[in-house]
Records
---
Amino acid sequence: MPSLYTRFVSGALFPLHERLKHHDSVALRKQMERSQWLKPAELEALQLQRLNALLANVGRHVPYYRELFTREGIAAGEFKSLSELQRLPFLTKAVIRANTEAIKSDQAEGLARFNTGGSSGEPLIFFIGKQRVSHDVAAKWRATRWWDVDIGDPEMVVWGSPIELGAQDRVKAIRDKLLRTELLPAFEMSEAKLDSFVTAIRHKKPRMLFGYPSALSHIAKHARAKGQRMDDLGIKVAFVTSERLYDEQRALISEVFGCPVANGYGGRDAGFIAHQCPSGGMHLTAEDVIVELVDKDGMPVAPGEAGEIIVTHLATSDFPFIRYRTGDVAVMDTAQCPCGRGLPMLKEIQGRSTDFVITAEGTVMHGLALIYILRDLPGLTSFKVVQHSRERCEVLLVPEASFDAGAPARIIAGFKKRLGEQVEVEVKIVDTIPPEKSGKFRYIISHAV
Ligand SMILES: [Zn+2]
């Protein structure tokens, strides 16, 4: 039974907040709670209808696609089946970097700038419109409700946070308080910090945990080592996202916090792509995203085979993500989920894994603490961080012509601030960064943890 406060937040306060921000996630969420029960064929028909509407729109208002459709003789908005999507080229990070202005719609208003490191050490700066935000909020809200958690229920978010709080963040802090969301900055994992995280979670008694699997399992391990019980707080579910979830992490988090672990897959760039339901199915947000799996030649893989995840987000007319290459690999699940939802499912997402690094003083720190310094730099094609020892760290950069000559000095200062002033940080400009011997690209490697 939701508490009175939760009913007030989800029924009144949050809808008001969304209306003030010109989002319509409340109506969208209600719609999506109906459409999740549609049959697969009905969902496909809905996808095709929305795809045609998106293509017709971007063919008129987005210079990059207007030119492309003219050049290729594509009648935008007249596809007869979803497979015709294959007539369009992939959207890579390099294409977005080279055409950022031409990808903005001439009708876009209030675009927000974001960045991501992706899974491959290839940073990307991109834009998101209000329509897209509403859809992602609605999709996440629907998924939490699968687990009997609503907006307004106390929530503990274990996440990276910027060092300085700007004005925007103070507004967010007030909003978070009203919505009963509390942030634990997860970058620094010192003993003292871990103690304070355990205390904060015990005090908050959240209905839901949300965070990186690596960070949540780190906290779980610490609580267990200290003999501190965490399974008596009434936590309903631990939502994990942003990294690959390993079986041993799932088992540890679930055991220590006494709750199931729900895996989610998505990102700021590609959107809220898939989420696990209580029956275990990793359901796609099929109303909003079309997912294709392709082989190394860009051709669709056979059912049951692994392929790179290609995403078309249907709510992105302001800054389109059409056939966007994520670099992540998955297998499509052909089974039917026992929950009865018609939303198709992914299985075995072989996504990114983030290494921890260690400071000169021995504090374990999430690798994203360093990545955040790099990924917002314009004109950077790719990067790799190698921590050779507590005393020495190497940063490889592949820049473009527009890369700021002053950036390496700022990178060194930022790394020293996080790792310790005495640490030697060496920035090297290179032409390419080869993958590891395993063939997999790892963008952060520590030999010191
Ligand atoms: Zn299900």
Note: The first strand starts at residue 112 and ends at 116.
---
Amino acid sequence: MQGGDDSAPGLGVYEAMGTLRAVRRLRPDPVPSRVLERVLLAASWAPTGGNVQPWRVIVVREAETKRVLGSLYAARWAAYAEQHRAQLEGAPEGLRARTERMLAAGDHLAGAFGETPVVLVFCFNPKIMAITDAKLDRISVVGGASIYPAVENALLACRAEGLGCVLTTLLCECEPEVRELLSIPQPWATAAAVPIGYPVLGGHGPISRRPVEKLAFADRWGRAWSS
Ligand SMILES: Cc1cc2nc3c(=O)[nH]c(=O)nc-3n(C[C@H](O)[C@H](O)[C@H](O)COP(=O)(O)O)c2cc1C
């Protein structure tokens, strides 16, 4: 399904979630506005603390703006990939091969980020978020729960539309430059950049994740879950 008609595609939610892998090789072909509109609508449906919706998304399509974002992204990716490749030395062959494949796709995205038809830059306002773990003696994560469900909804909608996409956060490392480029006012900040476009290869497909029994417990931490 390429999102070519006017109606929303009817991919089942479990199939969409179970095949939503990172797609980093994207064609430069434009994404129709009505398709983008559905992706943004899906994002808008996400729950947020107190229904405040402390997030906004900048839909970047201007060539020059994407070019600058792309060069910022490529610099961050190069540092990340170098470090990741160094860590792979001595790793088991299977893990090494899988990670190398991911890094090769990441290299491709980094080189082509600026030619991606659309980049969704998700922003948030920490001043209007319900952050219930802010005073704990650990990194606070609850604020993210009022942002990333919207990002995930957008990813799932892309999946349903046959659009490739990947959640990226490397551009957050250079938030000052992104802020200036996209005129993001204080105290709004950046949470993710999602390049989207029709896939070069097969696009979404099977994913590899830990089995449920390794992730879920029954009633107490560590107590085996069994259905
Ligand atoms: C919080 C977060 C940050 C991520 N940042 C990046 C990124 O900056 N660049 C990138 O290429 N992928 C990024 N990813 C994608 C992950 O690498 C990807 O989801 C993971 O390797 C699993 O791959 P799969 O979904 O294809 O199975 C990010 C994913 C998450 C959830």
Note: The pocket of flavin mononucleotide is lined by residues 21-22, 24, 102, 106, 109, 166-170, 207-208 (CB under 6 Å).
